[in-house]
Each structure stands twice: as structure tokens, then as C-alpha cells.
Write a structure and sequence with these properties.
alpha+beta; three-stranded antiparallel beta sheet; 131 residues
């Protein structure tokens, strides 16, 4: 289980900028994964996002992985403010109808976020299918 601001060409909409991926390298399906999300500014030791409990409730079959895009209130506000400064029409945007330009803008912001912040998961726990 890991979190990032996009990885291997996968990016998330700016409204939910954190890519959460759970990989199952066992012979047993994973029912749920639990963790806490922590966000640190690069080079700093204070968690700027507080601890946010996460529940990944998508079943993951053996030897597969699944990903979701998630948000954190700190980043929702931070990214929206930053985007609005660059694009005043941001607040009128429909996230379900992203244009190619909006997708590239989102990727650009995610790249900037990954330079400025680090995302970590702690207290990982997995709930497996009982046999």
C-alpha cells in the first residue's frame, strides 16, 4: 500500500490529488486495507496534513493491484487556492468533464506538489478473505 501524487503515468484530478494504490502479492484476496495518511513538506519533519485515517474498501484479487484517487482537506484547499490564482475559472470546472488542457494542468500541479510535499502511509493493516 502506498500513496503519491501520481505514479507511472497515472494522475488524479486536482480535486483528489493523492493516488492511493494497494498491491496484493498473496494467494488470498484483500477485502479492505487501512492506513493513516501523513503529509510532510520536503525537508521538514512536521506533518502538515494531520493524520487522516483511510479505508480502502475495494476487493483486491491475488497478484493484482487497485488504485483510487483520494483527497485530504489540507490539499483540497491548498491546491484549489493555487489553481484559482493561475486559472480564475477553476471554481466553475466540472471534474467529470475534464478537457485535455485541464488534465495536463492537473498533471503539472501534481508534479509541483510531489517536489514540494511527501506523502506517507503509516499503521497499515489489511483485512483478508477468511478461508
Amino acid at each position: 500500500m502506498h500513496a503519491s501524487f501520481g505514479k507511472n503515468g497515472i494522475s488524479c484530478p486536482i480535486e483528489t490529488p493523492i493516488l492511493l494504490t494497494v498491491e496484493n502479492y498473496t494467494f488470498t484476496p484483500v477485502l479492505r486495507a487501512y492506513s493513516e495518511l501523513e503529509i510532510f513538506q520536503t525537508g521538514r519533519s512536521s506533518n502538515v496534513g494531520g493524520w487522516k485515517p483511510l479505508v480502502f474498501d475495494i476487493r483486491i484479487e491475488p497478484f493484482t493491484s487497485r488504485s483510487i484517487c483520494t483527497s485530504h482537506e489540507f490539499f483540497t484547499n491548498y491546491v484549489a487556492k493555487r489553481q484559482q490564482e493561475e486559472d480564475p475559472d477553476f471554481s466553475n470546472r466540472d471534474p467529470k468533464k475534464n478537457t485535455t488542457k485541464e488534465v495536463f494542468d492537473d498533471m503539472k500541479i501534481q508534479k509541483e506538489l510531489s517536489k514540494e510535499f511527501n506523502v506517507y502511509l503509516s499503521k497499515k493493516k489489511f483485512e483478508m478473505v477468511e478461508k
